[in-house]
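Hi support team,

I've been running sequence recovery on a batch of backbones for a student project. Most finish fine, but this one hangs at about 90% for roughly twenty minutes before it completes. I'm not sure whether the input is malformed or the queue is just slow. I've pasted the structure tokens below so you can try to reproduce it. Let me know if you need the job ID as well.

Thanks,
M.K.
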């Protein structure tokens, strides 16, 4: 609990906890377990289920939290066959995207040396 008082990376600070407790109304949850809140002044915020990582917010909830749309997204929204499931930003991890040339050839240079 002490670490949660002073650090925001443990999901929420004391200020956010108190704001959520006294003025927050739970609006919904996404498939990752993130909880979305709103108060009477139309302020919107998210309490992350695990690590605090902004890329864990799906595009629908991103639009809602930034006041692009007024109504919260529905959980059973129709999706198309060509739509991919949301993934967080994997840059810097082993699952980061690497083009096929880099995977197959370890000596692949990303640049050409300039010769005079």
């Amino acid at each position: 609990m002490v670490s949660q008082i002073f650090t925001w990376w443990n999901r929420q600070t004391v200020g956010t906890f108190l704001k959520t407790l006294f003025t927050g109304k739970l609006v919904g949850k996404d498939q990752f377990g993130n909880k979305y809140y709103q108060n009477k002044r139309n302020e919107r915020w998210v309490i992350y289920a695990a690590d605090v990582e902004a890329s864990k917010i799906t595009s629908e909830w991103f639009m809602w939290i930034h006041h692009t749309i007024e109504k919260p997204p529905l959980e059973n929204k129709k999706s198309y066959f060509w739509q991919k499931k949301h993934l967080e930003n994997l840059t810097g991890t082993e699952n980061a995207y690497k083009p096929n040339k880099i995977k197959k050839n370890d000596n692949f240079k990303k640049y050409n040396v300039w010769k005079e």
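--
Follow-up from support: It reproduced on our side and the slowdown came from queue contention, not your input. The radius of gyration is 20 Å. No action needed from you.
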